[in-house]
Amino acid sequence: MGTSNIQSRRQLLAIKIVWAILFILIGIGIVFYCRYHGLFLPNWVIWEMNQSDLGNNKRIQLANKKLSYYQDDTLLWESEKDWKISKYLITDIDEDDQDEVIMLLWNRGDYGDYHPIWEKPDKINYYEHLYVFNLEDNRLERQWMSSRLLPLIKELEIGKENTLVAKDPEGVPTTWKWITWGFTAINP
Ligand SMILES: [Ca+2]
Fold first, then answer.
1. Could you tell me the residue range of the domain that residue 89 belongs to?
2. N or C of the chain: less Cβ packing under 10 Å?
3. What spacing in Å lies between the alpha carbon of 17 and ligand 1's midpoint?
């Protein structure tokens, strides 16, 4: 009687342990899935939805975190499905008489175009980035992609003398100027 009682207690304990491990694994799986698909982005991000008329029946549209470039109803270009774009600006940031589209977005990975060979890039988690694309006749052509942004940017505007004025989530402003290949912080 006593032995079978101990056995059934052990069996019950074993079942509980198996269930606990199963729940932990499912929990880890859910957390990993959410992080991988960018479902844990900060709630201070302002997801804008708007569009710009470019003339010649062309337009750029930001909706549902995706940027699209249309001529009439023909889709010329659209952002990659992993990108979550919160805002875009159109300006000739490098002053070569051709407009660029500047995107503020969240994308998987902490590096942009390049990463130091001695560092292992994080290709799982989402980070905030700034991308600059040339506005071509029938597509957007990648020009420059930042690594993860630090400080983070909540608000972004075009400032005086073709600068970018960014505000972090606490409202602290920084001013950036395109110099040769990338943005450099300058005094406002
Ligand atoms: Ca330009």
1. 50-186
2. N
3. 62
What separation in Å is there between the alpha carbon of 28 and the centre of ligand 1? 45
Q: Give residue 130 CA to ligand 1 midpoint distance, Å.
A: 16
Would you put residue 62 in left (φ > 0), alpha (ψ -120 to 50) or beta? beta
Ligand 1 centroid to Cα of residue 163, in Å, is 13
Q: Note the pTM of the prediction, 2 decimals.
A: 0.85
Instruction: Evaluate whether residue 44 is within a structural domain.
Output: no
> What separation in Å is there between the alpha carbon of 22 and the centre of ligand 1?
54
pLDDT tens per residue, range 128-180: 999 999 999 999 999 999 999 999 999 999 999 999 999 999 999 999 999 98
The verdict on 9 and 98 lying in the same domain is no
CA of 150 to the centre of ligand 1 (A): 25
Ligand 1 center–CA 90 separation, angstroms:
10
Q: Number of structural domains, the chain?
A: 2
Residue 93 CA to ligand 1 centre (angstroms): 5
What's the pLDDT at 107? 95
Residue spans of alpha helices (H) in the chain: 2-36
Query: Could you tell me if residue 43 is inside a domain?
Result: no
- Residue pair 105/116 in contact (Cβ under 8 Å)? The answer is no
